[in-house]
UniProtKB/TrEMBL annotation:
<feature type="transmembrane region" description="Helical">
    <location>
        <begin position="20"/>
        <end position="38"/>
    </location>
</feature>
<dbReference type="GO" id="GO:0005886">
    <property type="term" value="C:plasma membrane"/>
</dbReference>
<dbReference type="InterPro" id="IPR050487">
    <property type="entry name" value="FtsQ_DivIB"/>
</dbReference>
<keyword id="KW-0472">Membrane</keyword>
<protein>
    <recommendedName>
        <fullName>Cell division protein FtsQ</fullName>
    </recommendedName>
</protein>
<keyword id="KW-0132">Cell division</keyword>
<keyword id="KW-1003">Cell membrane</keyword>
<dbReference type="GO" id="GO:0051301">
    <property type="term" value="P:cell division"/>
</dbReference>
<keyword id="KW-1133">Transmembrane helix</keyword>
<keyword id="KW-0812">Transmembrane</keyword>
<keyword id="KW-0131">Cell cycle</keyword>
Amino acid sequence: MDNKLYRKNNSVLRRISKRLIKLAVFLGIPAAIFIYYFQLKNITVTGSSRYSQDQIVKRLINKREDKNTLIFYLKYKYFVDIRIPFVEKMSFELVDRNSVSIRVYDKRIIGCIEFMSDYFYFDKDGIIVESTSNKIDDIPQVKGLKFQKIALNEKLEVQKEELFDVILNLTQQIEKYGLNVNTISFNNKYEVTLDCGDIKAKLGKRSTYDEVLAKLKNILDEVEGKKLTIDMTTGTDYFIAKPESED
């Protein structure tokens, strides 16, 4: 009786083992093919002015399964909300079974303010979008703004709403002419002074700063290496420049 029961149990175990082996083969072969066929070998990143391709890739590939082209594409296309400082959004395109193309859209930052040793960056509408402990070199710091509080993703309430339009006009022209501007300062009359390294340029108060910044570009090219304060508030083609130490 015991032998019959033993043989019966063995027979059941063999049948179960065979079925498990068949199931493993049935599932394992397609899985192996899927893993091998969709190996992520090529990622192309375009659009970002703040991150290199390697920096973006390192932020996105952090698990073993991320090296599978299809999993990577579906994960970031439909399921994962990407949060990278100074990145507004990303778009993903499946190029082929081994390649994905990524388009990065940077947040449009027009300036920053310093508060309690941190730097807070705002967009054209005055919304605080990011903060860092160290200032980013190519974003001008704005001085002379008065505010009561600072909170990420909230509008910076300042003494005059129109100042954001002025800052936007200034930063657009600064970018257009490739000016190296460290700070944009407003005095109590909302007159503008730019700190361009060794050069300070007093621009005064204007409706737009397009023309005066075009002239400033030419002046900076001529006085490179000097330490000057340039008064451009007269509204003429003749400006007063004097050593900054005398200002």
